[in-house]
Amino acid sequence: MSESPRDAMLRWKLERDIEVYRFYLDVSVKASIFLMAVTGGISSYVLSKSDSPIISVALVFPAIINAGFAVFFFYSIREARRIARVHTDVCRTLGVPEFNLKPLRSVCQIFCLMSAVATAGLLLLMAASLGGKVRGGDCEKTRTALASSEVEMTR
User: Fold this and answer.
1) How far apart (Å, rounded) are the C-alpha atoms in residues 115 and 25?
2) Considering the chain, what is the average pLDDT of its residues?
3) pTM surpassing 0.70?
4) How far is the C-alpha of 151 from the C-alpha of 115, rounded, in Å?
5) Number of neighbouring beta carbons within 10 Å of residue 25
6) In terms of pLDDT, which residue wins out, 118 or 132?
7) Domain count, the chain
């Protein structure tokens, strides 16, 4: 028994939706990991060079990139909902069980929040550093206090 051209087209669409879902999920995770690696690297460098507050201007780059990704992931939430809704409709029409495509929406929400928080943190760190609140002496005092508390904890 051969299927109708409409059913064949819907099956093709179903396969493409699943491929697009996998691609979006894969790219989202890889982009977020790359973004956090770049943000962490630049932030670590800036914090290690706290004797010169002007170096904190380097935090503008990861802040802008994080803000861009926050906006990107925010709009991706709507697209992920649409993909899941279309997938559900196609599966119902064909009478096949549907796949759970909701994790993509959740991943986009989590990455949007992570990027927004990272942007705010980077801008606050830059403002504090340029305002003179983060100085080399303060960082050294913090390191000394942490080291002494670690020694006390091991006793």
Assistant:
1) 16
2) 84
3) yes
4) 36
5) 16
6) 118
7) 1
- pLDDT at residue number 36: 94
How far is 129 from 101, CA to CA, in rounded Å?
43
Do 19 and 83 contact (CB within 8 A), yes or no?
no
- For residues 84 and 18, give the distance between their C-alpha atoms in angstroms, rounded to a whole number: 10
Domain region containing 81: 5-154
pLDDT in tens, 37-52: 999 999 998 888 877 7
Structure tokens of 13? 């669409």
- Report the pLDDT averaged over residues 70-80: 94
The amino acid at 99: F
Contact in structure between 91 and 10 (CB atoms under 8 Å)? no
What is the token pair recorded at 119? 């942007």
Cα within 13 Å of Cα(24), Cβ side:
24
Question: What span, in angstroms and rounded, lies between the C-alpha atoms of 104 and 70?
Answer: 15
